[in-house]
């Protein structure tokens, strides 16, 4: 029955618009699937079943150190994250014991007191963004809401002053390209992010304040501290990992609820469902379609497929989150769903360091949008919604909406 390959080739334009049929095909027909990564034409594998995604993220034979364990062609294609910059040693791309130490020091800044303070920052930022959206009447969830909230919160939490969010977003786009023609701009994007981080670390070192970066500068455990270079790498990693992800998630969640008005109404009626709604929205369509590259450290077999040492492997998080082997009716959005844990915030050692902040932003920003605008509707035909071409990030380009008065609700978009 199955044709000779997935419905849309991996990382092709059609795949970016709708990867789910391809994920379903791969889960059933080729769960550990060999393909060629377009940037550099590198031999690679992608895993799509829930259990295999967990294994790749949790088993130490899958390393995060591309420069150490990656195949020669992987390295030659420039796919080693942060190569040649301070980010080479960032928490995202090192294995234990270096990872254990960085992670422990970083976690010292994520105290319950700080997370509670973030609640105030998020609530204020969301309220101001919604006021502005109301003034606009018709607005773009990506730009005017998700973008403003993610940049505003990240800015205040880190103590970062990037006046132009556009610039940050553009810089982020250059560091995660899928188009081979854009690979040469990656170092330039990384350098700019590192520049923002270095400036911030220098400022907070000289005059510490009440923010995450100042906490990281102060963080100490058993006499051990982060070096200047490690601080810059960590802050840069947070900027990279914590800005556009939130924007993408707010957009995906808003669209999921617009597609399921019954679920949106339930969330409005029962605000106490916000935490489970966020977990379900993360499962249904979180911000990252895949984790960062993992590299196989020794010849091995995964789910019946042989993987050679050096093999780059992509764990398809969104495919795992829609695996019917794990989730009942996985394509259905059900904000009361309980049970199996999703993989949207990762799994294992590298699970999301900013998970508490991501959840907090989701729990405040998503219900608030639908409570403030009960008559929220798409302001363009559903089929015109486009996703960016990016192998790791699942983000809508534009999501124009308008708030329709009660009597007019339900008209065609
Ligand atoms: C909805 C928003 C977010 C999503 C979906 C998300 C998702 C993820 C995932 C899947 C990973 C694991 C990647 C891998 O194993 O290759 C990760 C790691 C990470 N995230 Fe998040 N994230 C979000 C928000 C944030 C925020 C707000 C921050 C910063 C405060 C952040 C900081 C990090 C860092 C530093 C890591 C690397 C941790 C490590 O390697 O030990 N993330 N995130």
Describe the structure concisely for a colleague.
By secondary structure, this protein is of the alpha+beta class. The protein has helices spanning 13-17, 20-29, 50-58, 66-69, 72-76, 98-107, 112-136, 141-158, 165-175, 186-206, 212-218, 228-242, 244-259, 261-269, 274-285, 317-320, 355-372; strands spanning 32-37, 42-47, 62-63, 138-140, 220-221, 224-225, 294-296, 300-302, 305-307, 312-315, 376-378, 400-403. The strands form four sheets. The protein has a five-stranded mixed beta sheet. It has a three-stranded antiparallel beta sheet with strand order 4-12-11. Strands 5-6 form a two-stranded antiparallel sheet.
What structural keywords apply?
Cytochrome p450; 413 residues; 12 strands; alpha+beta; 5-stranded mixed beta sheet
Provide the number of structural domains.
1
State the CATH superfamily name.
Cytochrome P450
Largest sheet: 5 strands, mixed
Q: Just give the CATH class.
A: Mainly Alpha
CATH architecture tag:
Orthogonal Bundle
Segments where pLDDT lies below 50 for 5+ residues?
none
Bound molecules: protoporphyrin IX containing FE
CATH topology: Cytochrome p450
The helix/strand order is HHEEHEHHHHEHHHHEEHHHHEEEEHHEE
Overall outline: globular
Q: What is the residue-averaged pLDDT?
A: 91
Termini separation? 37 Å
């Amino acid at each position: 029955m199955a044709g000779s390959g997935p419905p849309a080739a991996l990382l092709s334009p059609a795949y970016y618009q709708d990867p789910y049929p391809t994920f379903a095909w791969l889960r059933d027909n080729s769960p550990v699937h060999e393909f060629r990564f377009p940037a550099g034409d590198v031999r690679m594998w992608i895993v799509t079943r829930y259990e295999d995604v967990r294994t790749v993220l949790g088993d130490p034979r899958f390393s995060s150190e591309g420069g150490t364990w990656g195949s020669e062609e992987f390295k030659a294609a420039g796919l080693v994250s942060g190569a040649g910059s301070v980010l080479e040693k960032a928490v995202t791309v090192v294995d234990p014991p270096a990872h254990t130490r960085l992670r422990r020091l970083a976690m010292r800044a994520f105290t319950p007191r700080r997370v509670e303070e973030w609640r105030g920052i998020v609530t204020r930022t969301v309220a101001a963004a919604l006021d502005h959206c109301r003034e606009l009447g018709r607005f773009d969830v990506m730009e005017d809401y998700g973008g403003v909230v993610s940049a505003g919160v990240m800015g205040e939490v880190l103590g970062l002053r990037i006046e132009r969010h556009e610039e940050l977003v553009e810089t982020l786009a250059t560091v995660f390209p899928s188009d081979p023609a854009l690979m040469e701009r990656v170092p330039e994007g990384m350098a700019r992010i590192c520049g923002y981080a270095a400036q911030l670390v220098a400022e907070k070192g000289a005059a510490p304040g009440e923010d995450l970066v100042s906490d990281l500068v102060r963080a100490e455990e058993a006499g051990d501290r982060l070096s200047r270079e490690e601080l810059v790498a960590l802050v840069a990693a947070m900027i990279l990992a914590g800005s556009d992800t939130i924007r993408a998630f707010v957009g995906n969640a808003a669209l999921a609820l617009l597609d399921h008005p019954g679920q949106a109404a339930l969330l409005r009626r029962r605000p106490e469902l916000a935490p489970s709604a966020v977990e379900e929205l993360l499962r249904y369509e979180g911000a990252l379609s895949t984790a960062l590259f993992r590299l196989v450290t020794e010849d091995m077999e995964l789910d019946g497929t042989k993987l050679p040492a050096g093999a780059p492997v992509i764990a398809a998080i969104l495919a795992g989150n829609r695996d019917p082997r794990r989730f009942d009716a996985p394509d259905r959005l059900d904000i009361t769903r309980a049970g199996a844990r999703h993989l949207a915030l990762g799994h294992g050692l590298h699970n999301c360091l900013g998970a508490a902040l991501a959840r907090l932003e989701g729990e405040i920003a998503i219900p608030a949008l639908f409570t403030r605008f009960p008559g929220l509707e798409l302001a363009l035909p559903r089929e015109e919604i486009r996703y960016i071409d990016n192998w790791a990030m699942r983000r809508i380009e534009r999501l124009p909406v308008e708030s329709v008065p009660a009597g007019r609700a339900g008209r065609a978009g």
